[in-house]
Specification:
It is built from 8 helices and 13 strands. The chain has a single domain, classed as Stationary-phase Survival Protein Sure Homolog, Chain: A (3-Layer(aba) Sandwich). Helix 1 crosses helix 5 and helix 2 runs parallel beside helix 4. 27% of the residues lie in helices and 27% in strands. It binds manganese (II) ion. Manganese (II) ion (MN) binds next to strand 5.
Amino acid sequence: MRILLTNDDGVHAPGLMALHRAFKDRHQVTVVAPDTEQSAVGHAITLTDPIRVRRLEGEDGLDGWAVSGTPADCVKLALHELLPQPPELVLSGINLGANLGVNLLYSGTVSAASEAALQGITGLAFSLGTLHRPDFSFAARFAVHLVERLPELGLPPGTPLNVNIPALAPERIKGVRLVRQSHASLRERFIRRSDPRGHVYYWQAGETMDSEDDLSLDYPAHLAGYVTVTPLRLDLTDEELLRSPTLAALDLP
Ligand code: MN
């Protein structure tokens, strides 16, 4: 299969390498990924700067391009300029750190898969639930397994899948759960410091928090040790409020 591989951690990130190693022998894998880390850029695209590309001449065994843009830029540019033929599948990741709950809105990893879906191509986002000493091997194995099973899953082309793999030893992973995006949000935290000239600066250090204990939701299921899979919608409309007579009564001044 023709596969486009991208991420938000940057073209040389170990998680991307792990996916590349897992797929390169049986598929035609082209990498088009950001040249620097683009975590938490969401679905941003670059409009006010040029987007520069650099051919990866076999660096780390990769075939493709490093791009001075966001994950969504990478997918757009790959599809419309760089690749001789459109890919049949877009893989994004494996991200360092889970993408659950509200983090789906900030995630560059998920946005690359969403961008693929907007372009009519199946996009799969993979994230590993740790920020420290990651071992991507089981997550990559799961990705291969999922891609092998794709034909029988009946996924419509415009549907991205968000997949999170817990950072546990494979024998401790309890199974796979199809789950809804949870309401897990960030407990907002800023670390306030001063630079050598006395100017205050901040680091965002928020942590994902959720009090729910419902295994049909992504965050609780992830914490409980399941690989979680969520089919995503890109239409943000609130269907229920769309039927609200009070909102519908809104008129001109
Ligand atoms: Mn990232």
